[in-house]
Amino acid sequence: AQSVTQPDIHITVSEGASLELRCNYSYGATPYLFWYVQSPGQGLQLLLKYFSGDTLVQGIKGFEAEFKRSQSSFNLRKPSVHWSDAAEYFCAVGAGTGTASKLTFGTGTRLQVTL
Amino acid sequence: DTGVSQNPRHKITKRGQNVTFRCDPISEHNRLYWYRQTLGQGPEFLTYFQNEAQLEKSRLLSDRFSAERPKGSFSTLEIQRTEQGDSAMYLCASRGQSNQPQHFGDGTRLSIL
Q1: Is the CB of A36 less than 8 angstroms away from the CB of B104?
Q2: Would you call B56 and A90 a contact, using CB atoms and an 8 Å cutoff?
Q3: pLDDT tens profile B59-93
């Protein structure tokens, strides 16, 4: 069964500082990987996805993530955080095409941004 | 593309009552998913439709839960005889063809008194 671990429950960074959110996955085949962001009381917005190809993927709002198969990781990065980035971030893994591709999520990392 | 729409946004009900939620997916998305999210947790998969066929159900989906997608467009999720443990955010997502990600609605927050 697939699983996702987000080791950091809560992270606080200063506005303008760099950010890295960790994600480790467990999946038997080549995974489909996603990062979603959730503001309080809202649904999930897709930041970026990895299906295949280039292991460094660019997303919206200046975020990027790198797929490292050897480490089973898909960490999210941003070079300079803005106060509006404060939210809950979820990493997810999905099965490949031809299946239901249901997503398995981590427990999330809450990002707090100080001014 | 008007996004995934869920109604109602909030539902407060007494224990033992039945509730029904609706999800309107992005038009032409033939895949539809329901997830449940409790406080401090990530969403957990409940069930999946491809067109009108319900192809997968999680063990989380007890016999008090039923989901339908009668014409392959909107979907409903019904919970019968609600219990305190059903309090959660219920999220709907839809997806188009292969290599497309799931797009989520804003969810329905259920509170059981």
Answers
A1: yes
A2: no
A3: 888 899 999 999 889 999 999 999 999 999 999 99
How many angstroms separate the Cα of A52 from the Cα of each of A33, A86, A89, A90? 10, 29, 22, 20
Cβ neighbours for A54, distance < 8 A, ≥ 6 positions apart: none
In three-state secondary structure terms, A45 is strand
pLDDT tens per residue, range A29-78: 778 899 999 998 888 999 999 988 889 999 999 999 999 999 999 999 99
- B43/A105 Cβ within 8 A: yes
Please compute, for residue B20, the number of CA atoms within 13 A of its CA located in the half-sphere on the CB side.
Answer: 8
* Nearest chain A residue to B47, by CA: A102
What is the arithmetic mean of pLDDT over A75-96? 93
